[in-house]
Design brief:
104 residues; alpha+beta
Length: 104
């Protein structure tokens, strides 16, 4: 994992120490790869359900939750056309910081 990715994960977790960050890079059915970053444990009162972007865009960002199993929200950033984990992590961090009102 690159030093940039590690620093972004640390920055995300500094927003709230009990957040979990999950990353994956998977084969795309049409060739290439899909990159996904998911942040678990966000306070659902500050991160309402939303979706930004679509398959053809640079990325798609979505927030889910809460549900019966988990009272917290989950943020997912999916990049359908490259393996740029750092860009996905940066998008997640930018969204979290913007919603929390804190500055990095």
């Amino acid at each position: 994992m690159s030093a940039g990715a590690v620093e972004l994960i640390r920055s995300i977790r500094q927003q709230q120490p009990d957040l979990s960050v999950i990353m994956s890079i998977q084969p795309h059915p049409e060739g290439g790869v899909v990159t996904a970053v998911t942040v678990l444990g966000l306070p659902s009162n500050r991160y309402p359900v939303t979706r930004e972007g679509d398959y053809g865009d640079e990325y798609m960002l979505s927030v889910h939750g809460p549900d019966q199993r988990d009272p917290k929200a989950s943020l997912s950033v999916t990049r359908y056309h490259d393996d740029n984990v750092v860009a996905a992590l940066q998008t997640a961090l930018d969204y979290i910081v913007a919603r929390s009102g804190s500055a990095q």
